[in-house]
Amino acid sequence: MNIQKIELEKDLKIWLKILNDSFESEDRLSLYSKLLNIESFRLYGGFVNGQMTTTGMTFYDGESFGLYSITTDRNYRGLGYASNIVEHILGEIREVFSGFIILHATQAGKKFTRSLVLRILFCSVIGANCNTI
């Protein structure tokens, strides 16, 4: 999977389509368009064969990072793409920041989040460099 920062409005529209379908939310193009130009926010898309399949977003408040909007297009779920984008984002954050990272999860993402946290804890307890979280 190829993971890219979302910077163009055309990509943002696809990003929002996946997000809105997954979270059954309304289209917030005008709100998210503003985030593209704010340094403390980063939007990410995971692409498979040129098709965006996975979304993610970070926010830095000066003290901690938050991970939000981690979801996968319903046609691509169960293939590890959400794990891949989280791993990529965490790696990018850890290159420049060693503080707290908060993973926001909805009720629907509870199982994924629990599994991810257990894998991270396992890797840190055994002292392994788990390249695949």
Brief summary:
By secondary structure, this protein is of the alpha+beta class. Helix content is 40%, strand content 25%.
Key features?
single chain, 133 residues, alpha+beta, Aminopeptidase, five-stranded mixed beta sheet, 4 helices, 5 strands, 25% strand, globular
Description:
Helix content is 40%, strand content 25%. The model has no long low-confidence stretch (mean pLDDT 82). The chain has a single domain (2-105), classed as Aminopeptidase (3-Layer(aba) Sandwich), CATH 3.40.630.30. The two termini are 15 Å apart. With 133 residues, it is an alpha+beta fold. Strands 1-2-3-4-5 form a five-stranded mixed beta sheet, with helices on both faces. It has four helices and five strands. It has helices at 9-23, 29-35, 81-94, 110-126; strands at residues 2-5, 41-48, 51-60, 65-72, 101-103. It comes from Leptospira interrogans serovar Grippotyphosa str. LT2186. GO terms for molecular function: acyltransferase activity, transferring groups other than amino-acyl groups. This is N-acetyltransferase domain-containing protein. Residues 1-133 form the N-acetyltransferase domain.
Task: Summarize the topology.
Layout: E1 2-5, H1 9-23, H2 29-35, E2 41-48, E3 51-60, E4 65-72, H3 81-94, E5 101-103, H4 110-126
Parallel strand pairs: 4-5
Antiparallel strand pairs: 1-2, 2-3, 3-4
Low-confidence parts: none
Radius of gyration: 15 Å
Share of residues in helices: 25-40%
CATH topology: Aminopeptidase
Structural class: alpha+beta
